[in-house]
Each structure stands twice: as C-alpha cells, then as structure tokens.
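This section describes the prediction task in plain terms. A model, or a person checking by hand, is given the sequence of a single protein chain and must write out its three-dimensional structure as a string of tokens. No templates, partner chains or ligands are provided. The sample shown here is typical of the held-out split.
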Amino acid sequence: MALAAFDRAYAGEGVTLAGVDEAGRGPLAGPVVAAACIIDCDIDIVGINDSKKLTPVQRRYLFERLIADERVIYGVGIVDRDVIDEINILQATIRAMIEALDNLSTAPTFALVDGMAIPHPTIPNEQVIKGDAKSLSIAAASIIAKETRDRIMVEYHEKWPEYGFDKHKGYGTQKHRDIIQDIGPCPIHRRSFEPVRSMVSG
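The expected answer:
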C-alpha cells in the first residue's frame, strides 16, 4: 500500500508518527475541524484515502472503522466561527491542528501535516503537499476531520433547518448564497467571509 509505505519512511525506531489534516477552511459557515491520527502501517482497513475522493457512504464507513480500531489513536481540534472571524481562517486552522495533536492520548514524536507546517511548541512536523493522497496517517486524519465536521453541520441543521446545512455543510453553493441573501446569516455564518461580510455590513 503506497500510503503506508510513505509513512514507513518516517516511522523508524523510536518514532511515533502522527498525520494531521483539516476540514472546513473554505465554507461560509461553521467551524474548522482538524484531526491528528497515529495509525499502524499494517492496518487492514481497506479503502483509506483522501476524504475528498470518497463518497459520503464510504467516508462514514471508514470513519466508524477507524475510531473503533484500537490500533488507531486520534485527536480532534475544533475552532468555532467566532474565533475564525477574530483571528482569521489560517490562524484558526493552525490552532485546530495544534489542539488535535494535543488531544492525542499518546504524544507523537513527529507529525506530517497536510499542506503546511505548524508552530507546535513540542512536536516537530513537516509539511506534505497533497498529503491526504500520499500518507496513510494524513488520509486517516482527513476522514476523521471531514466526517466529524459533517456531523457537526448536521446538528446545526436541526437548529437552523432553513439554511440546508445538512446538504452543503456550510459551503458557498449558489443555493446557500441565495438563502443568505434572502433571510440573512445565522450565528454560525463567518462574518469575515464574503459574501457574508458585505451582507452584514450592508
């Protein structure tokens, strides 16, 4: 398995490797969610891949398999809309990733991070471009982050069903933009993101 082989190049003797990825940098509403994952390279869960390449059914299945497997250690970090608006989405993403690493029950000695390196105070880490398609641990983290965020957005749908968060998960689809235009934003809409910012200021 190519993803496992990528991780094995890092996970030598004395190294506990974690993969880190996020979901929700681009939406107009909801939190940004990061996951960190330590996973056995010999794990027998077939189909682990970049979460964006999976169907919702595949992703849900793999999420349940991952979180139930004792060979998988994972942590999640969630940064809500108000903090995103306060410190910007990049800094919120970094904060979520650091929280995810800190929430692991076993501290890794090294981390592979999708798309960026992060200023973690104690865990050295390396940026991996398109890491969710290269690294087993990052791919597993991407599934956990995406599915966790999707479930949060479905919960928000119960509170604000008129926005359709269960369908678009807060992303800026035309239908979602039209709804915001018609009835205005709700408390989880990101005021620092366009077109929400213009709608609020207008």
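For orientation: The beta strands are 17-23, 32-39, 72-79, 110-114, 125-128.
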